[in-house]
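Incident log, entry 3
Record: Aminotransferase class I/II-fold pyridoxal phosphate-dependent enzyme (393 residues)
Problem: checksum mismatch between cached and fresh output.
Input:
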Amino acid sequence: MFRHIEAFAGDPILTLNEQFVADPRPAKINLSIGVYLNDEQRIPLMGAVAAAEKQLAQSFHPHPYLPMAGSPAYREQSRKLVFGGANAERIATIQTLGGSGALKVGADFLKAWFPQARVWVSDPTWDNHKGIFGGAGFEVKTYPYYSPATHGVAFDAMLDQLRGLPAGDVVVLHACCHNPTGADLNPQQWRELALVVQERSLLPFFDIAYQGFGGGIEEDAFAIRHFAEQNIPLLVASSYSKNFAIYGERCGALHVTCKDAGETAKVLGQLQSAVRKNYSSPPGYGARVIGAVLQDAQLRAQWEQELTAMRVRMKHIRSALHAELQARLPGGDFEYLRIQQGMFSFTGLPVEQIRKLRDEHGVYLIDSGRMCLAALSNAGVAPVAQAMVQVMT
Ligand code: PMP
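Fresh output:
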């Protein structure tokens, strides 16, 4: 029966991680996977999360099904985190299985109601964008995004491409901390982009998987809030995986901004329909934890402080690696480490050098040259810099 089935090639990032685990060298360093590690090289358990879990464990909770749209309190808190307080009646929000689940439900919703649209993703992007939108039946195309020369956004080329698209095409945008490049649009560029999106009647689908990892919780939501203020209809997939370090509990949300309360109710109904056909209803535990943190002033303040500390740590590691590289190779251009933000940077190292880093120095980056700075400890900075300089010279 199953003889014709082909082997799954595996996910390149997860496969590399397995290779890292099997590597016997004690000094090996894994900068390939997209996970934030603390300086002790562990996924942190945030204090606010632990406190909320403790409170929950002390009260009796059965395990009912959640509604298709998820926990009402969690949905409300999620909407506020992304949009601020504005326009509650015009935003349809559902709880989802992480950011991935939000993208998937959003993609199914769009395919049902905008079957002719094409989906445009940045070149490069998080690989699974192609998988999820392609899997929902869309033709997925790319728009120019990254300029290796400036280590920033190829903004003019991006705008030129988007200006040529037909009305109704979907444009996937990373709201902050672009994965994999770390290169983000500045506020002025977001404003210009909003004008083009409006002129061309494009449908933006924001992906915000790192809110609080770039400039701050509010700053990182700038683009979404600006587009919403311009009354541009849009979708948002938001994720708590990173900013609550709650990866395995699969916590995210999908938001769709609408014209009025009537439209919101219809959209919400169709999102529920998409959920029903995929997995019926989302899981309860993580939503309870996050809801408890965001609703309680003290826990929320604690969470914000801890999130700030994570952001500061990443910026510190960026500066430290920059300084270490610059000292070892004064002619090199490592400014990108300080300009780019979030967990990742694009090193621009060619694939032969990435392989040498891995094979000869036990420093693991993925072949594209993306480095996860959020996984680098203070102790790892000097050996990584040394290894990079050795393969570069
Ligand atoms: N979008 C982007 C850009 C991501 O980097 C990730 C996580 N790596 C996701 C979405 C998915 O988030 P989650 O793990 O919450 O499904």
